[in-house]
Amino acid sequence: MNILLLGAPGSGKGSQAEQILKDFGYVQISTGDLLRDSLSKKTPDGVLAGEYMAKGELVPDELVLRILKERLNRPDCLKGVIFDGFPRTVVQAEELDKILKEKGNELDLVLNIESPFSVLISRLLSRRVCSSCGKTYNTISNPAKENLCSVCGGGVVSRPDDREDVIKNRLEVYTQNTRPLIEYYKKKEILFSIDGDRPVPDIYDVVKKLINEEGND
């Protein structure tokens, strides 16, 4: 099964993806991680992507799609994929449809986690991450003891982009570019919107039920 997680920054997509991976064994594909991995391996596309990233510019869709296509061809993607951070626009969604169709595949389920922006801003301002392994914490709901990661012992810090001015800008970009995806996938009748203003386990109960139902169709 191929799943896309939609939701504004701070909506909790990462927490849900983590639980889906644990229970279903799918592969999570983040284009950000793919670009960084390609760059670290110094592949031709990775080096080219790095030139854009070094200037703070967006990596062109054509380049992202080539790297994504290569990743989808690996055997571990056969069981199922969770798409994280891509597509961000309708144009990207159309290109992803083409790539999956070439493989005789398609997106099976789009989970749209919705929360009021006021809640998301508060959530992101209280978010903390491990500087070593990336595990996420929250000063309100899930604080790190003595600001140390419970997994690896690394220091727990604020992300540079978790400032209020940056957060508001990210939410504005989301509204302009990504919200149209909701209508795009609604027309395909594969989108399910979920109330994200609840505890993570309660949201996951809904997510898991939807995956099981769609997987048995």
Protein described:
- This protein has 217 residues and is of the alpha/beta class.
- It has a domain at 2-26 and 79-117 and 177-215: P-loop containing nucleotide triphosphate hydrolases (Rossmann fold, 3-Layer(aba) Sandwich).
- It contains nine helices and eight strands.
- It has helices at 13-24, 31-40, 44-54, 61-72, 90-102, 117-125, 164-178, 180-187, 200-215, and strands spanning 2-6, 27-30, 81-84, 109-114, 127-130, 136-138, 156-157, 191-195.
- A five-stranded parallel sheet has the order 2-3-1-4-8, sandwiched between helices.
- A hairpin with a 5-residue loop joins β5 and β6 (136-138).
- The protein is globular and about 50 Å long.
- The protein starts with a strand and ends with a helix.
- The model has no long low-confidence stretch (mean pLDDT 90).
The string of secondary-structure elements, in order, is EHEHHHEHEHEEEHHEH
- CA-to-CA gap between the ends? 11 Å
The average pLDDT value, as a whole number, equals 90
Query: Radius of gyration in whole Å, from Cα?
Result: 17 Å
Structural class: alpha/beta
Number of strands: 8
- Main sheet properties: 5 strands, parallel
Helix share, percent: 40-55%
